[in-house]
Amino acid sequence: MDINHITLLNGPQKVAPFSHAVRAGNLLFITGQMPTLKNNKTKLISGGIENQTHQVMKNLTDVLKGCGSSLNKVIFSRVYLVNFKDFDKMNKVYASYFNLNKLPARTCIGVTELAVGASIEIDFIAGV
Fold first, then answer.
1. How many C-beta atoms surround the C-beta of residue 57 within 10 A?
2. Which of 10, 34, 104, 108 has the most CB within a 10 Å radius?
3. DSSP string covering 51-86
4. Residue 123: which of 42, 34, 44, 49 has the closest Cα?
5. pLDDT tens digits, residue range 70-101?
6. In angstroms, rounded to a whole number, what is the distance separating the alpha carbons of residues 90 and 54?
7. In Å, how far are 20, 100, 101, 114 from 95, measured between CA atoms?
């Protein structure tokens, strides 16, 4: 199986040493994205969990597009939440990005802290 490490020149700035995605066969493993502004890895989007979730999904969409994929091809996602009281608000925003009849499989994990002080991080496994 061919494995390709993908770093996008126009992708969201990386907050750590990683590839934006790794393609293995027909699968893409998209690195967890933070609610940072696309061109400033140290600046979180302003606002609460709704705004942060929108920004994470925008960053993920940018990576998917840069890899020749889309939200329609997402197979699995993992959501990391610092505060589970945000679960319902996050779900409302998250669900708005998908066809509700074809949602990806998902795990949601409570964590104590995330990079750059984020409240949420999401990663994907998608098809190409």
1. 21
2. 34
3. HHHHHHHHHHHHHHHHTT--GGGEEEEEEEES-GGG
4. 34
5. 999 999 999 999 999 999 999 999 999 999 99
6. 9
7. 23, 7, 10, 22
How do strand 27-33 and strand 74-81 relate by DSSP bridges? Answer: unpaired
H helix or E strand, kind and range, residue 109:
strand 105-110
The amino acid that residue 44 corresponds to is L
The structure tokens listed for 40 are: 């400033």
**Per-residue confidence band for 127, with pLDDT thresholds at 50, 70 and 90:** very high
Tokens at residue 4, please? 């390709």
How many residues appear in the chain?
Answer: 128
The two structure tokens encoding residue 102: 């074809």
Handedness of CA 105, 70, 121, 2 (dihedral sign): positive
Q: Are 103 and 1 in contact (CB under 8 A)?
A: no
